[in-house]
Design brief:
Layout lengths: L10 E2 L2 H11 L6 E5 L5 H8 L4 E5 L3 H11 L4 E3 L16 E6 L5 H9 L4 H4 E9 H7 L10 H9 E9 L4 E2 L6 E8 L9 H12 L7 H7 L3 H7 L13 H14 L1
Parallel strand pairs: 2-3, 2-5, 3-4, 5-6
Antiparallel strand pairs: 1-8, 6-9, 7-9
Helix pairs in contact: 1-2, 4-7, 7-11, 8-11, 9-10
Amino acid sequence: MKAKKSLGQNFLKDLNILSKIVEQGKISEKDTVLEIGPGTGCLTELILKKNPNKLIVVEKDEKLSNLLSEKYNNKLEIINKDILDCYKEFKFNNPIKVFGNLPYYISTKILLSFIKINHLSKYFSKFIFIFQKEVADRIIAAENTNNYGRLSIIADWKMNMSKIIDISPNSFDPKPKVWSTLITLTPKSKYEKLSKIKNLEHVTNIFFNQRRKMIKKPMKQLFENYEDVAKKLNLNLNLRPQNISKNKFIEICKFYEKLN
């Protein structure tokens, strides 16, 4: 089956990497598993060998959906949709495990869509995702590093994250031009509640639009009495955005919500 460039398809074919991905899920016979973008079914095959209670795959490509249907018959449930049109539907009584070799061009959008779900840990126990390496580096970045930014803060707000392995372009067909990275994300059962994720997106956007400038300017944009707010939050206005901890950004956002 020829990959479609328009859907960002790069089929993972390396059996060693596929096995490592499945290992991260620690799938039991009680588990419900969701796979995003199964493609030709290489990972699907290994997931089925773990005998999950239920396997659901979301495949946007109609030809691939038909191929999977012929190949696996009644062993799985196939949903021929874009994951962004149906991600809210997967709310089971027990948290499910999600696998995905995500198309590069919408990978962050998919991740953020899940993060926006209320009571995330109630419905999902673990995400095992492949991202473009550059994106994965931004997701897991710590403060005081060049990759640290909006994505690092928003992902960390609701997720515990671990990098597992970098994946060579040679592991895919067709070969992408860049390396990929496998990371796991586990929803936090306890995290600071915010009124809307849009507020955190707005606050971090204001700060990281000028990431090399001192934070005095973004604070001034967000708060009329920015100096008083900085004192209350114990913020040094001479710092730069990458020097501010993830928890501190949540504090800033909560203060912003309080005043708005």
